[in-house]
Structures are given as structure tokens and as C-alpha cells.
Design a protein that fits this description.
This protein has a 6-stranded mixed sheet with strand order 2-1-3-10-4-11, sandwiched between helices. The protein is built from 12 helices and 11 strands. The chain is of the alpha/beta class. Helix 7 (181-193) links the parallel strand 6 (171-175) and strand 7 (197-201). 38% of the residues are buried. The termini are far apart. The longest helix has 34 residues, at 16-49.
Length: 341
Amino acid sequence: MNKAYCKGAKAQRTPAKELRISFAYPLRLCVFAVGVLGLQFCQATFAQAYPTKPVRILTAEVGSGNDFVSRAIALNVAGAMGQPFVVDNRGFIASEIAMKSAPDGYTLLCYGAPMWLSPFLRARVPWEPLKDFAPITLTVEMPNLLVVNPAVPAKSLEELLALARAKPGELNYGSSSVGATPHLAAEMFRVMTGVNIVRVPYKGSGPALNALIAGQVQLMFPGSGPAMPHVKSGRLRALAVTSDKPSPLAPGLPTLSSLGVAGYQSSSPFGMFAPARTPDVIVTKLNQEIVRTLQRADVRERLFLAGMEVIAGPPAQLTATMKSEMGRWGKLIKDLGIKEE
């Protein structure tokens, strides 16, 4: 036999070890693919079965905006999900409890700005807003109003600014807790307009509004929900809305930005969250059902009458809102050295 031919044939042989390796690699790929498909199948099955027991919504104190939104959602989403949704009012500690809860979709958190702004206001907070929670949806938004006591001789923003500049330090504004939206909205107004107005703190927005109606303070930046009934009754005079565009919640009121305070914007957004590492399929299902609930005409009307405008969008929208709020308000808090008392 031709030696050259034999030598070539020998060179073309594939050793058994190489054959085993060549067959093992695609085999491992197949096992990996089957594993991925199996995981996806299990997740899909889990999502279809969820929930199989009551779901708890942790939120702020009874009577707060967070509480109202939580109850509107819980009341109307339970039927679609086939299990009760129970509102659990825990106040400020609700965020910490939610963070430490199992990421299984059975503990949710409905909260607003205090959750993501507290790290700027407190020396130590046990959670990181963007890492320890899985956003589900931005639920509603409530703009603030600039309101004054009717005895204040100012019927426009221009007149109010002129009065404040003529009497520096003599106009007082009422606010609730340090770092709450009515407080930060007033401080942003003070910084952007250069007026000297003085904060008078109260234990809540209700007492602050009562003090304003009684003439103990001259102005305030309350949420549209609690303020509008007093505006409609004539007990308060509204000068502007703080949203970036005119709001149907305050018909006829111009924005502060359009009146010359360029770039001014303040509102109270509320979000629904799950603990971090909650499976994506569960977050997606919750997002779909909660958004569908919030977009129902009867639910939208109920929230609108409470001074809230339904937003209801994808999880990424809530994340973007939090980042924007943390950037804007965080800078103001740091610049002014604002700390919770």
C-alpha cells in the first residue's frame, strides 16, 4: 500500500477522546437549553397560579394619600386576582418591613416620596430605594397648590411676591413633617423666587391647613386633594398649581412655571413596589392587573375626586420618576441642610 496514502489516512483519524469532547459539547448545550425552558415553564406555571393566598399591601397611616390609593387598588384588584388584597397600615416602618419580606409577591408596598427621599433626610435608613425594591407601577400623582388665607392682600403670584419682598420674614407658611412634599415645595419656591418666608411646622397637613384657614399662617403648598374643597368653599384662595402643566385637578389655575418661576415643578407621586428579587413574572402580572384596575373609569373617578390623577404605567416609569425626584429634591435637601427633626 502506498505509504503516503497510509500516512494521510492516519492523519485524518479522529481520536476517541476528541470524539467524546465533540459529542459532549452539544449535549451540554441541550441540557442547558432544556434547563432554561424548564425554568421558564415553571415560572409561567407559577405566575398562572399566583396568588394562592391573600396579598398584603403595606402602606402609611390610615387616612393618608398612600392609604387611600392602597384601598382603592385592594378593593378592585382582588376580584381579578382571585384572592383578597389586605391593606396593612404601618406608617414609616412599612418600607423596612416590605424590604425584609419574602420576595414571593405576597407582600407589597404602596408609598410615595418619603420612601425614596428618606436617605437624604436621615443619617441612616436600612434600605436603598433603587436596590431593595422591585417597582411595579407608578399609581397616581397629586400636584400641590399655592394657597393663601383670603385675608392676605394678594390675588396673584405677582402680588404675593411683591408683598413678601416688601415684608421679608413676616409671611409664614405652614407645612407638615420635614421633607414632606408641602415642605419641600415651599422651600423650592423660596429658593427659586428669593423671597424670605418662614416655616411653621405642624404634625400633619390637616392641622397645617386648619392653621392657614384660621389665619395663623399666611400661605401653604398642600396637595390638591385636601386643599381643593377649601378652595371651592372660599376658605382658601388658590394662586397657582405646582405641576409642570395645567392640571384637571385644579381647573383654571395657572402653573407657577407659566407665571414666571421657570422650571418650577412639584407633585406627590405614589408607587407600588414588591421586595427586590421578586420574580419578573409575578411583577409583570401585578403590573398588568393593577394598571388595568387603575384605568377603570369608576376607579379613576374615585381617585380624581380625592385629588389624584391616575398614571398607571410600566415599572420603568416608576424607576425613572424616583431617579428624577431623588436628583431634584436630593440636591435641594443637601444644599439647604434639611434634616428630619
